[in-house]
Amino acid sequence: MAGTAGEASGMDVKTLCLGVLTEGDKTGYEIKGRFEEAFSHFFGAGFGSIYPALAELSRLGLVTCRSVEQDKRPDKKVYRLTDAGRRRLLDALLATPPRHKVRSEFLVLMYFAHLLPPAHVAAIIDRMVAQWAPLVAELDRCMDGTDMNPGMRFAAGYGRAVLGAALTYVRQHKAELIEAIDERRELEPNALAGE
Amino acid sequence: MAGTAGEASGMDVKTLCLGVLTEGDKTGYEIKGRFEEAFSHFFGAGFGSIYPALAELSRLGLVTCRSVEQDKRPDKKVYRLTDAGRRRLLDALLATPPRHKVRSEFLVLMYFAHLLPPAHVAAIIDRMVAQWAPLVAELDRCMDGTDMNPGMRFAAGYGRAVLGAALTYVRQHKAELIEAIDERRELEPNALAGE
DNA sequence: ACCACCATGTAAACGGTTACATGATTAC
DNA sequence: GTAATCATGTAACCGTTTACATGGTGGT
To answer: Which residue is nearest to nucleotide C7 (CA to C1')?
Structure first.
């Protein structure tokens, strides 16, 4: 979005909301669910950004909002894409430069591994492996589904390929790294790095 | 950093600055250079965050700052890690949970590929390939160096492995994606997606 | 002429995360 | 009893990004 028209700019939560609404009408809560299922490995957003985004889209006439009464629950607000919203989504998509950023505290930690106790480094790596392994399995399951459009498939396949490579790399180089920092420790004992 | 002591929290530019200063005294400008060389593929920071971070670290006594006069240039400010800074770095590193986040406008675009003109999608993929290919080459060169500590090597190797997988995947599945969205177009013509 | 490099900083804008606030239902 | 699911929203906080401000050197 950014500004009034769709200039070149970063993808924001508003555009993503318009995007998931092309799949059908949804509540804010359901949109969050889709974000988790479909985007979580390459784009994150919480309620704190989704609800305000939806309110703004409604204000701009890019979505309509219909309240649905429920017994024993607060009212649902079901959002639907308008024609203007569909046009805006397209403009935004066409104007979005394809960035791809990684922000990895994990790799920073690995970069400074020689400053840390080897056992700590080993624990961190194990933790990442434990986190990634089930994700790979999930992406594999996800790609067996027949209800996916080509883009979803491509994005999921990408995630699968990259995560797989990451897992393989980390598993194959863990021992090497730990040994190397162990040796360093003997050569340059660092009083501050004790535990 | 976050707060006074090193609680569990996100890695920030301040910690990274302390980290690169373990490699030797540096100016803000040189730190930016190191960020580009060593971290750019998993952590970004510009002058707008580095200079204020350095000022804050100085205020906290975690680095010292020595001004060096230069002729025909503004004075340099050379920063050096203090013992307190070294300790704080270690605390921060030990307290940092190993997160790994990807934010990819590229994959969002691919996810919604069926809404876009196939030629546009193809162009985006080509652009990513053109961006990644030289980076792989650079990482390969970087890993031939002998002046790297084990952690740098591990991080660079990781980047190389993952980028390689990404490139391979994207190259192998580009045609498949383009064909699939071309077919979709025939089946469900979308007046709004024309170009 | 123009761009890249060296060199440092400030200030506003922007957007996302986190915590707060509320509350019933269902399953373990 | 405790946690997860359903359901919506606000407000403060935090950190990054971007634009602004300045200015000489050296190469094409």
So the answer is: B74
Q: How far apart are the first and last CA of chain A?
A: 49
Q: What is the DSSP letter of A102?
A: E
Contacts of A57 (CB under 8 A, 6+ apart): A14, A17, A18, A63, A79, A85
pLDDT in tens, A91-119: 999 999 999 999 999 999 999 999 999 99
Nearest-by-Cβ selection for A166 from B99, B162, B176: B162
The identity of residue A170, as a single letter, is: V
Q: How many residues does chain B have?
A: 195
**First CA to last CA distance, chain B:** 49
Q: What is the pTM of this model?
A: 0.91
Specify whether the CB–CB gap between B104 and A101 falls below 8 A. Answer: yes
Residue A115 to residue A118: CA distance in whole angstroms:
9
- Chain A residue numbers with beta carbons less than 8 Å from the beta carbon of B92 are none
Closest CA to A109 of B177, B121, B39, B157: B39
Per-residue pLDDT of chain B (195 residues; tens, 9 = 90+): 433 343 455 678 999 999 999 999 999 999 999 999 999 999 999 999 999 999 999 999 999 999 998 877 778 999 999 999 999 999 999 999 999 999 999 999 999 999 999 999 999 999 999 999 999 999 998 888 888 899 999 999 999 999 999 999 999 999 999 999 998 876 765 555 544
Are residues B102 and A102, on separate chains, in Cβ contact within 8 Å? yes
> Cα angle vertex B109, ends B105, B115, to 5°?
155
CB contact under 8 A, A180 and B100: no
CA distance A119 to chain B (A): 11
B 67-86: CB within 7 Å of strand C: 70, 73-77
**Cβ of B13 near strand D (distance < 7 A):** yes
The model's pLDDT over B84-109, given as tens digits with 9 standing for 90+, comes to 999 999 999 999 999 999 999 999 99
**Calpha distance B1→B17 (Å, rounded):** 11
**A interface test, pick of B90, B93, B94, B112 with most A CB neighbours within 10 Å:** B112
